[in-house]
Design goal:
Structural class of chain A: mainly alpha
Oligomer: heterodimer
Number of helices of chain B: 3
CATH class of chain A: Mainly Alpha
Helix content of chain B: over 70%
Number of strands of chain B: 0
CATH architecture of chain A: Up-down Bundle
Radius of gyration of chain A: 23 Å
CATH topology of chain A: Cytochrome C Oxidase, Chain A
Radius of gyration of chain B: 17 Å
Largest sheet of chain B: none
Distance between the termini of chain B: 52 Å
Strand content of chain A: under 5%
Distance between the termini of chain A: 36 Å
Strand content of chain B: under 5%
Number of domains of chain A: 1
């Protein structure tokens, strides 16, 4: 028997050994892990920057550094967390590791392109990080690079923008790879409506990656062109229009939220039936709601611009579309709860993280409607309320789903189990810490605390200090989780530790290089627990 | 692969396509002399879109490929029309 069908993908079977065997691999599982390691480093850097900001905000006035440094820190915190962690996030790590296993494929459609995407990701991240140390100091525009300020500031915007541009190419190529993989490499008999729902969510995500990312790519190049050649796209003093920048930026950056959240929803949809030992409730509705979120979510971008001076008609159109996108999101939540109803629920760590996701995502989603509503948005726009909403979606949603996915597929990835008790303790710290950190920001925002402010009035002190304590608890939870997962080897994992029904649980843990000795023939629906 | 046969297009077809593209380019230049005010960009984009469709169908062989690719291209172009439309709608009504 060939080595590739008997050896674990973690063993070296290729031409090179050690680190080089990883850096030259075209195995989707190894590439998924390489994304994960890189993202974990970026994530920890982003977390530390966030904690530093919280420390600075512990009391009114200057504590450790000046306002300009604070501007630089929140900008790089945003760039790292958005462009190198949450946007590639679940799609790059678990889209790579799990999706081909779930559809019964040996690999993705273009394995070399997949590796190239990873290198682009690393190159883009390196350029964005290098922008901190080159030129006239770190960029201070915020991660949104709003014009005309971004076309005028003397800080090093060009490098950061170019880094984001390169990261975009990685995203486009990954999306393209996944679309072709799902169309061409599904196991025989696996029609689209027999496909598990995580690949469905990856499919919807991939389309957004391919269709939306080029727009931000060209927009970022327009910023560079504006700075170098003073063309007049966005700068009013040159005859440009700053609102055009906002349109172009959000045409990508709002769908980017769905690039982040759709795979998160897909993961939760895999976890809930497994730990409820029950067939998913409303399979087609969930599959279609992924496409609906991707489709409608593409046309809500201007809700970021309600106070920017866009036309009144445009405002109510985008407010309506924003409310519409809540419908497919709610369909998913109702179906998850419907799946749990009368299920044989097993409260293992992946399921607990999934419950945490639903709770936090609901708060994030519903507070999004406060901002989607034209009247209330005027009050909360550019306040800490937005910071809270955003983090409930992006960290409470994507972050907790990522941790849920990690705890769910960890036995398959590494062939080892982890300590459940410690995982639960980590969850408790993270969940309590997260809510202490971000919930006060809703209240501070409603009270009038602006976002991105280095200083504040004394009446906001208590809320800021509760947030800081929450940040510390969250950090403790993250450390416990990482130590639990990665400090020492747990017991050997069985092939199917959770009693799952999808194809990845039919193969060894960890999988062999080729995944499946023989590609399986699919004859029934996934999640067949009846 | 399902589509292994190759399609050879007559040179005369390419000639006609080239001619059509040149005609549309001439139209693009000509309409810049007419004051269409708010519709200037829209007209330019419509002409460019017609040219793109011709290029896609003949030079990029969409005409001879599986219908699935046509569906993808129509979907992408529809999204493009909606995105551009919604953006310029804002300018029209501001």
């Amino acid at each position: 028997m060939a080595e590739t069908t008997t050896h674990s993908y973690l063993e070296n079977t290729g031409r090179y050994k050690g680190l080089l065997s990883w850096l030259t691999t075209t195995d989707h599982k190894r590439i998924g892990l390489m994304y994960m390691w890189a993202m974990m480093v970026f994530f920890l850097v982003g977390v530390i920057l966030g904690e530093i900001m919280r420390l600075e905000l512990f009391r009114p006035g200057q504590q450790f550094f000046n306002a300009q440094t604070y501007n630089g820190i929140f900008t790089i915190h945003g760039i790292i967390m958005i462009f190198t962690v949450v946007i590639p996030g679940l799609a790059a790590v678990f889209g790579n590791f799990s999706m081909p296993l779930l559809i019964g494929a040996h690999d993705v459609a273009f394995p070399r392109l997949n590796l190239f995407s990873w290198y682009l990701f690393i190159a883009g991240a390196a350029i964005a990080l290098a922008s901190q140390f080159m030129g006239n100091g770190p960029p201070d525009t915020g991660w949104t690079f709003y014009a005309p300020y971004s076309t005028q500031t003397h800080t090093n915007v060009v490098a950061a923008v170019f880094g984001a541009f390169v990261l975009g190419f990685s995203s486009i190529l990954t999306g393209l790879n996944f679309i072709v993989t799902i169309h061409r490499l599904r196991a025989p008999g696996m029609t689209f409506f027999k496909m598990p729902l995580f690949p469905w969510s990856i499919y919807a995500t991939a389309w957004i990656q391919v269709l939306a990312t080029p727009i931000v790519g060209i927009t970022l190049l327009m910023i560079i062109a504006e700075r170098w050649f003073r063309i007049g796209f966005f700068d009013p003093s040159l005859g440009g229009d700053p609102i055009l920048y906002q349109h172009l930026f959000w045409i990508y950056s709002h769908p980017a939220v769905y690039i982040m959240i759709l795979p998160a929803m897909g993961v939760i949809t895999e976890i809930i039936p497994t730990f409820s030992q029950k067939r998913i409730y409303g399979y087609r509705a969930i599959a279609m709601s992924s496409l609906a979120i991707a489709g409608v979510g593409y046309f809500v971008w201007a809700h970021h611009m309600f106070t920017s001076g866009i036309s009144t008609t445009e405002r109510w159109i985008f407010s309506l579309l924003t409310f519409l996108v809540a419908i497919p999101s709610a369909i998913k939540v109702f179906n998850w709860v419907g799946t749990m109803y009368k299920g044989s629920i097993s409260l293992k760590p992946p399921f607990i993280f999934a419950l945490g996701f639903i709770f936090l995502f609901m708060i994030g989603g519903l507070t999004g409607l406060v901002q989607g509503s034209l009247a209330t948005d005027i009050h909360v726009h550019d306040t800490a309320f937005v910071v809270a909403h955003f983090h409930y979606i992006v960290f409470g949603g994507v972050g907790f789903a990522f941790f849920a996915a990690l705890h769910y597929w960890y036995p398959k990835m590494f062939g080892r189990m982890y300590n459940f008790r410690r995982a639960n303790i980590a969850f408790a710290f993270m969940f309590i810490g997260f809510n202490l950190l971000y919930f006060p920001q809703f209240i501070l925002g409603l009270m009038g605390m602006p976002r991105r402010y280095f200083d504040y009035l004394p009446q906001f002190t208590a809320g800021q200090q509760i947030s800081a304590v929450g940040g510390w608890l969250l950090l403790v939870g993250i450390i416990i989780m990482l130590v639990n997962l990665f400090s020492k080897k747990g017991a050997k994992a069985p092939d199917n530790p959770w009693g799952g029904k999808t194809l990845e649980w039919t193969i060894p843990s960890p999988p062999t290089v080729e995944n499946f000795e023989n590609i399986p023939e699919v004859t029934e629906q996934p999640y067949n627990y009846d | 692969m399902e589509h292994t046969e190759t399609h050879i297009t007559d040179y005369r077809v390419y000639g006609w396509v080239l001619l059509a593209l040149l005609v549309f380019t001439t139209i693009t230049i000509t309409v810049t002399w007419i004051d269409l005010s708010a519709f200037t960009v829209m007209v330019a984009l419509i002409i460019a879109s017609v040219k793109s469709v011709i290029v896609l169908r003949y030079f990029m062989h969409l005409k001879f490929e599986s219908k699935m690719f046509t569906v993808f291209v129509v979907m992408v172009l529809s999204i493009y029309v909606l995105v551009i439309g919604l953006t310029f709608f804002d300018y029209l009504l501001r």
